[in-house]
């Protein structure tokens, strides 16, 4: 195969040409890195593929930018480019489109789904704490965010040759179980829990919180039940196990629908016997202090102290997380430990890191809180206690229904309609979540999630299926011809984006930001649809091969981009 011309390499070539020319006219004014940083990708294709603004140099040399640009051009070795032009204060570089197109398409097609992979991760393990819903509560939209963001990050990291370990740190311990047991014993029924575990348990929990304001004795009872549980009481343990099992069954249904799997379900309870080591270590290292009967680690002026043990001896969320971090480091020797959890827990993760640092663990610096924004409803915070919840199951159900209806209307003879409707409906929900920067808050509107036009997952899926269907037709209708390429404006746009996919994946991985991929997929789909609307693909001329290869490469990359988001790409829809 020919030398591969990726866009980053092309950029490097531009920088080298400029730097060489500069040694003649203004040596040592701009470093190679500075030149690189100054290079722009113009919005308008007429301004070339890369542009070098001469403002900075003009300032340094006290000359007009246009003059400088011209001087560089006079000294420039232009052989690597189709054209170089001065336009105003800019030097514009035009690449050899035909060459870049030929090598890019060949590379994408040869690599297939592997296009964009890299070896940077060297098989290092990255643990990803994700989803982690609380037992006996419904999986909320927040947990959905954690699930799909974590899943996508895992896929992106795999592509970059890391080994993710997806851990579901189930909220299966805590005082809420005391409340739940009280509520169940007072108002619950076994049949109801068996029939509809999550909703029934949820109902009890909400009722508890409706009444405990006026009946503080309920809280006392709840504390007692939780204490029983911690002490291994038979009935309490039996109830706990049962609630956990039923909840997990319901969660598994959702995970199956989303197509998400985990490597571990070790939740908070798993660390019950591992926390004394933490308190011992903290004591040994002289980090534990007593404050109002509780044991704390002081974290200085910038952070609230970490509350390790309550006055009644009960251990806390952070204590479990300390034990979990230590356990994970010993078990996986992780290169990084990511926690995909809402922004509202930022302080908690800062405290976690700070305590581990105080304990002398260097690997504390490899802990990253992958925060994400809040989902509100009508501007209000969702809350299980207030009963203001959006049920993920309902959202998925509605979205799949709508996909089904659309397919019935538009493509009633489609084979395997239900599978496709599922892929589209679920894909819409996942994509909707991943297309915004993860730290953005957003207000949840069902109509928005199940919208299939515009910047949506189904739009990308549909674009992919459309290109596939042209390729299917081509296979039966037209003869392939030899390839002479002239690359037009709108196909050049596609080629450049395809060539940029590896960069995009690297960036998404480094930023732990699936939206980088989602936005890229939207741009590529849009460019493709523009091209498709303005060209005849299936004409037996000398460019046919090129056009079909362009379509093929586009389907490969769109499908892989969706795959990295955890969204399926049906061949037909
Ligand atoms: N169960 C917690 C919640 O729903 C999230 C747990 C996040 N993971 C962790 N290791 N703290 O808020």
TrEMBL record:
<dbReference type="InterPro" id="IPR036695">
    <property type="entry name" value="Arg-tRNA-synth_N_sf"/>
</dbReference>
<comment type="subunit">
    <text>Monomer.</text>
</comment>
<feature type="domain" description="DALR anticodon binding">
    <location>
        <begin position="460"/>
        <end position="573"/>
    </location>
</feature>
<keyword id="KW-0547">Nucleotide-binding</keyword>
<keyword id="KW-0067">ATP-binding</keyword>
<dbReference type="Pfam" id="PF03485">
    <property type="entry name" value="Arg_tRNA_synt_N"/>
</dbReference>
<protein>
    <recommendedName>
        <fullName>Arginine--tRNA ligase</fullName>
        <ecNumber>6.1.1.19</ecNumber>
    </recommendedName>
</protein>
<feature type="domain" description="Arginyl tRNA synthetase N-terminal">
    <location>
        <begin position="12"/>
        <end position="95"/>
    </location>
</feature>
<dbReference type="GO" id="GO:0004814">
    <property type="term" value="F:arginine-tRNA ligase activity"/>
</dbReference>
<comment type="similarity">
    <text>Belongs to the class-I aminoacyl-tRNA synthetase family.</text>
</comment>
<dbReference type="InterPro" id="IPR008909">
    <property type="entry name" value="DALR_anticod-bd"/>
</dbReference>
<dbReference type="InterPro" id="IPR001278">
    <property type="entry name" value="Arg-tRNA-ligase"/>
</dbReference>
<dbReference type="GO" id="GO:0006420">
    <property type="term" value="P:arginyl-tRNA aminoacylation"/>
</dbReference>
<dbReference type="InterPro" id="IPR009080">
    <property type="entry name" value="tRNAsynth_Ia_anticodon-bd"/>
</dbReference>
<dbReference type="InterPro" id="IPR014729">
    <property type="entry name" value="Rossmann-like_a/b/a_fold"/>
</dbReference>
<dbReference type="GO" id="GO:0005737">
    <property type="term" value="C:cytoplasm"/>
</dbReference>
<keyword id="KW-0648">Protein biosynthesis</keyword>
<dbReference type="GO" id="GO:0005524">
    <property type="term" value="F:ATP binding"/>
</dbReference>
<keyword id="KW-0030">Aminoacyl-tRNA synthetase</keyword>
<keyword id="KW-0963">Cytoplasm</keyword>
<feature type="short sequence motif" description="'HIGH' region">
    <location>
        <begin position="133"/>
        <end position="143"/>
    </location>
</feature>
<keyword id="KW-0436">Ligase</keyword>
<dbReference type="Pfam" id="PF05746">
    <property type="entry name" value="DALR_1"/>
</dbReference>
<dbReference type="Pfam" id="PF00750">
    <property type="entry name" value="tRNA-synt_1d"/>
</dbReference>
<dbReference type="InterPro" id="IPR035684">
    <property type="entry name" value="ArgRS_core"/>
</dbReference>
<dbReference type="InterPro" id="IPR005148">
    <property type="entry name" value="Arg-tRNA-synth_N"/>
</dbReference>
